[in-house]
Design a protein that fits this description.
The model has no long low-confidence stretch (mean pLDDT about 95). Helix content is about 35%, strand content about 30%. It is of the alpha/beta class. It has a 7-stranded mixed sheet with strand order 3-2-1-4-5-9-8, sandwiched between helices. Strand 8 (about 180-185) and strand 9 (about 195-200) form a beta hairpin. The longest helix has 13 residues, at about 120-130. The chain has a single domain (about 1-200), classed as Vaccinia Virus protein VP39 (Rossmann fold). One of its GO terms (molecular function) is methyltransferase activity.
Length: about 200
């Protein structure tokens, strides 16, 4: 499984155009979580979207709502699509695990991306979230429902997913200075996603 986790970036780059088309044509069944995220942010907030994909529908919705988006994805094809669709926003080709942008954001997203990281890489992301979070800031990501690794499939290729358990996520969030404000396990109104919404403390 570790080997499959190392193929995530090449997997998405290989299937980038197909994935983009499938995502745009699919129903947006997780929008209720983005609405919670957006509803708790001030107008014009700066948002860091980690694993932004091709920017549709999430980054486009954020930009149209007046937010300033910085999108990060390791797929050059995805970032090229983002730049063509939303040239006024900032787009960066990078591995989310190694970024250090030197600035902070009012909101940080790792939606439908964080769960592709190996367990140890997920643990290492929480200091990175904190490094890029203003005080206060919102953090939203989704995971699996319980500890473990799983292999899905997309276009005939295996697709790696992993999750820690809920208690460890809570501990990692607390250690990074975040408080959980909303959490759902396999939310039936969001395509079965297990979602986390947290807030960093104000200074």
């Amino acid at each position: 499984m570790t080997d499959l986790s190392d193929r995530i970036i090449t997997h998405y780059e290989r299937h980038a155009l197909a994935w983009d088309a499938d995502r745009r044509n699919a129903g947006w069944n997780d929008k209720r979580w983005l609405d919670q995220f957006v509803g708790a942010l001030p107008h014009g907030a700066a948002i860091l979207d980690l694993g932004c994909g091709a920017g549709v529908p999430i980054a486009r919705h954020l930009a149209e709502a007046g937010f300033r988006v910085t999108g990060v994805d390791a797929s050059p094809t995805f970032i090229s699509l983002c730049r063509s669709r939303m040239p006024d926003q900032e787009w960066i080709v990078a591995d989310m695990r190694s970024i250090s942008l030197g600035k902070r954001f009012d909101g940080v997203l790792a939606w439908d991306s964080f769960f592709h990281l190996k367990p140890d890489d997920q643990r290492k992301m929480f200091p990175l979230f904190a490094e890029h979070a203003s005080a206060p800031a919102l953090l939203m990501f989704n995971t699996g429902p319980a500890y473990g690794e799983a292999i899905g499939s997309y276009r005939g290729d295996p697709l790696y997913h992993a999750s820690l358990d809920a208690a460890e996520y809570r501990a990692l969030l607390a250690a990074a200075g975040f408080e959980v404000i909303a959490h759902a396990v396999e939310d039936p109104l969001a395509g079965g996603r297990t979602a986390w919404l947290a807030r960093s403390a104000a200074t």
